Amino acid sequence: MTFSLHRGSSPLLVSMPHVGTDIPPDLRSAYLPRALAVEDTDWHLDLLYDFLPGLGASVIKPRYSRYVIDLNRPPDDAPMYPGASNTELCPTRFFSGDALYQAGCEPTGDERKRRREVYWAPYHAALAAELQRIKAQHGYALLWDAHSICSQLPWLFEGVLPDLNIGTAGGASADASIAAAVVRVCAGRERVSHVLNGRFKGGYITRHYGAPQAGVHAVQLEMCRCLYMREGAPFDYDPAQAALIQPQLQAMMVAALAACAELKRPDPSSRA
Known about the structure:
This protein has about 270 residues and is α/β, with parallel strands linked by helices. The chain has helices at about 45-50, 110-140, 175-185, 205-210, 240-265, and strands at about 5, 10-15, 60, 140-150, 165, 195, 215-225. The longest helix is centred in the middle third of the chain and has 30 residues, at about 110-140. It contains five helices and seven strands, in the order ββαβαββαβαβα. α3 runs antiparallel to α5 (about 240-265).
């Protein structure tokens, strides 16, 4: 199986498209040795979000590394952020900008197509079906796309990222009241910085599945690793640091769910 899916009982679906760490044995020799440490993984999000069962969330996670295929990129490989450095559907560079592959071993067009069919398509089919199931059961769905990243990556962005980067595709993937509810939670935490629709506005998953008019709201959270782990190798999880940010993450998700429910509530003024 190329991914795992846990079906929950609430309107919340959490996607963690970059937590996979496996590289298939038949592909490993094509990569540079450094790549086998999969340094650009969204490390330990399953531990960080260990409160999700209490929220009744569905959770979908891949087995394989983003170095095999990036599940948060469009199938046609169109750049997510035109004019900026971008990684591809089948990445050929680290986040540092260095080459991932041995010279001449980058995936061909046929290989990219194969990976899309074997790894990308099943994940997205399951994600779409789970959103459909949730909406049929609850009348609406909240998709939370969970990510983490180093706070400083000059090839991708200048300076230091805010701690929490909330993305709703510039307001297109979720109702404004949901973004506002999440931001209100963050505004009460002075120790942790945040931004809405800054450098990271949401990747393919947020932009493709978010359909507020249809009752499907999508929010991406790109958070800095330093909030819960060692940013560099060996990428250790820091339980003490994580314990400081987990209540805020949970509060953000609870606030988003409450805002979704409020949108679904009938307007008393519309009753005859």
